[in-house]
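Task: sequence design from structure.
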């Protein structure tokens, strides 16, 4: 291999991950926001060079700014390779399931245990972890598990707000639940039965689902409960099951609630609803065995901020 070919290979190996990361950044935050933040940072460098009279700093600013325009143009016109790869992979997964399910019917996967914990920070950001223990599905055809999370805020959910939501899925065997692996998952936005934005996640489990397999799903959702935690509007926290579940537990932790009297919880058909004070936090939980299908249950929280 010639020196030139080897140099191009090295540059390609080093540059491709950088371009992919830049594409992901632009996709999540939007082109204009990323561009404005970069220009602001470079402008600060250029202004500093002007004030201090440092010619090399001004030259550095001009060079980086020029490079920025070149990179931005390349990303804009070259397309998002990383995202196209994701779409292609998702399509292949879905096609494999469609081919298998077209020739055979099967009973949906049923859930032994359904546990969810939602942590709502005082700025409205939310982190949700859902753990599902599954019954066996031993028919040796491709299986998937669908889950979702509904947005109940009154502030409209923008396209950028949707892009900022992160979700991950993991699959573990019944013998060692700590040894979990990342699960292939695809997602789509839809609307819930009560008209709210809903993120549907399809977790692809493969051909073998053992008795006691554990699937863990994690969502990080910025500003999920910002209306509630700023005192603007109350918010619902509920569940509705469309598949067989033997038992479930639902727990919501509200961070840094200063006064119990300012935080009100109203039951909406939940069994065993409990409200607990844990230090600075308020915890609300409920549970049931063999919940009714398509029956909504939960609570409404209302926070009157006095600060």
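Answer:
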């Amino acid at each position: 291999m010639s020196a030139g070919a080897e140099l191009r290979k090295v540059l390609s190996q080093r540059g491709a991950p950088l371009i992919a990361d830049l594409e992901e950044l632009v996709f999540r935050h939007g082109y204009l926001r990323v561009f404005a933040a970069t220009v602001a940072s470079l402008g600060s460098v250029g202004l500093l060079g002007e004030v201090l009279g440092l010619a090399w700093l001004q030259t550095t600013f001009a060079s980086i700014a020029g490079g920025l325009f070149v990179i931005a143009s390349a990303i804009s016109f070259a397309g998002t390779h990383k995202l196209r790869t994701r779409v292609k992979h998702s399509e292949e997964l879905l096609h494999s399931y469609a081919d298998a399910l077209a020739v055979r019917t099967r009973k949906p996967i049923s859930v032994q245990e359904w546990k969810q914990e939602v942590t709502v920070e005082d700025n409205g950001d939310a982190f949700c972890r859902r753990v599902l223990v599954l019954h066996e599905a031993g028919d040796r055809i491709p299986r998937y598990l669908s889950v979702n999370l509904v947005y109940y805020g009154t502030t409209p959910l923008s396209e950028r707000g949707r892009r900022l939501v992160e979700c991950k899925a993991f699959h573990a065997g019944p013998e060692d639940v700590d040894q979990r692996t990342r699960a292939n998952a695809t997602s789509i936005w839809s609307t819930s039965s009560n008209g709210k934005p809903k993120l549907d996640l399809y977790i692809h489990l493969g051909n073998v689902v053992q008795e006691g397999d554990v699937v863990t799903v994690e969502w990080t959702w910025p500003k999920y409960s910002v209306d509630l935690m700023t005192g603007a509007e109350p918010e619902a926290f509920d569940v509705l099951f469309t598949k067989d579940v033997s038992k479930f537990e639902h727990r919501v932790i509200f961070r840094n609630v200063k006064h119990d009297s300012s935080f009100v919880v109203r039951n909406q058909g939940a069994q065993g609803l409990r409200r607990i004070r844990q230090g600075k936090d308020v915890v609300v939980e409920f549970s049931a065995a063999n919940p009714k299908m398509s029956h909504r249950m939960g609570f409404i929280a209302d926070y009157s901020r006095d600060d």
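Residues 3-29 form the longest helix (27 residues).
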